[in-house]
Design brief:
Blueprint lengths: L10 H6 L2 H15 L4 H11 L6 H13 L4 H25 L3 E2 L2 E2 L1 H5 L1 H20 L4 H23 L8 H25 L5 H28 L2 H4 L5 H4 L5 H9 L2 H12 L6 H11 L5 H16 L7 H15 L3
Antiparallel strand pairs: 1-2
Helix pairs in contact: 2-5, 4-5, 4-9, 4-17, 5-7, 5-9, 8-9, 9-10, 10-16, 16-17
Length: about 325
């Protein structure tokens, strides 16, 4: 069974360490979203309601406070990261054919595919217009590389749909690109903007990367085993679209060849009824319900170990708790 923190991490309490800074980040995000009228204004207003837990901005400002003081660079990086993240959500919902996001209609459900793709592109462009205004070349280069890597990760994931030969390492490589790289950049740039040394900069990138991998593993676990009303978005889309995630890889490794081929044929059949329920039942019958979560625990442990470069403080403790929170969100 996966290890759990003695007390379930409370994100509100984690945020208390940087409450004032996150309020400023939120004010700046809302300002970026509130400057339009008409259809674009409606779109901005709609995606503003997708606001989640602001984990990426939290990583950025907590890393900054753990190293030193927070300044406008931290705020701008946090806003850019959240806008990039929002753009990827809009595009993901198109690719997955998802109907809901945060218990609201997805953009593609309400406005259609063409508007959704163009609006996601617009959010990316807007994020980089803001990024270009930051007077720190390292920030711009790092975020540009991050966007490139994220797009490559999404591309690879789509290329490998229904690729039943995908290995766990292949999966981690994709997750590292499409999700974890942005977490890593937020942690790295948060520390960098506070004047950290090269060793700390690298350690914070590795911290964010490991947290991001754990986050995506849990997300993929929930897509199969979670409750749609609790998670707040359309579930089962990974299975329907042939995305080979870690729970499936674990299942394939456990089954004999005949049964494995039968399960893979079920997943590949677009007309199969009750597909998700059958796959989950198999995962549970094989004792693999927590297989992916065990892997996520390992990445969180590795992430927390990298924080040893930081002095002990409330901010380092908050980063540790945030890492624990990523694997505690198991609905």
């Amino acid at each position: 069974m996966p290890t759990q923190p003695a007390t379930r991490p409370d994100l509100t309490r984690i945020h208390e360490a940087v409450a004032a800074e996150l309020e400023e980040v939120e004010r700046r995000i809302q300002a970026q979203m509130a400057t339009y009228q008409g259809t674009v204004g409606d779109l901005m207003g709609h995606v503003a309601r997708f606001a989640g837990k602001r984990l990426r901005p939290s990583v950025c400002v907590l890393a900054g406070k753990a190293v030193g003081t927070v300044n406008t660079v931290h705020y701008d990086v946090a806003v850019v990261a959240e806008m990039i993240h929002t753009a990827t959500l809009v595009h993901d919902d198109v690719l997955d054919g998802a109907d809901t996001r945060r218990n609201l209609p997805s953009v593609n459900t309400r406005w259609g595919t063409e508007v959704s793709v163009l609006f996601g592109d617009y959010l990316f462009a807007k994020a980089f217009a803001l990024c270009a205004s930051i007077p720190n070349r390292d920030v711009l280069l790092t975020m540009a590389e991050t966007a490139k890597v994220m797009c490559l990760g999404e591309l690879l994931q789509n290329v490998h749909r229904f690729n039943f030969a995908l290995t766990e390492q292949d999966y981690v490589d994709i997750v590292q690109r499409k999700t974890a790289h942005l977490f890593g950049s937020c942690a790295e740039l948060g520390a960098l903007a506070s004047g950290c040394d090269p060793e700390t900069r690298e350690a914070m990138r590795e911290f964010g990367n490991a947290v991001g991998i754990a986050f995506q593993i849990v997300d993929d676990h929930l897509d199969l085993i979670g409750d749609e009303a609790e998670v707040g978005k359309t579930l089962g889309t990974d299975l329907d679209k042939g995305k080979i995630t870690l729970p499936l890889i674990g299942l394939f490794e456990r089954l004999d060849e005949k049964r494995r081929r039968e399960v893979q044929a079920l997943i590949a059949d677009p007309k199969a009824a009750g597909k998700r329920g059958q796959v989950v039942a198999l995962i549970e019958a094989q004792g693999l319900r927590d297989f992916a979560l065990d892997r996520a625990d390992g990445y969180v442990a590795a992430a927390k170990a990298r924080l040893a470069v930081l002095p002990r403080s409330a901010f380092r403790e908050a980063l540790e708790s945030l890492a624990d929170y990523v694997i505690a969100r198991r609905k």
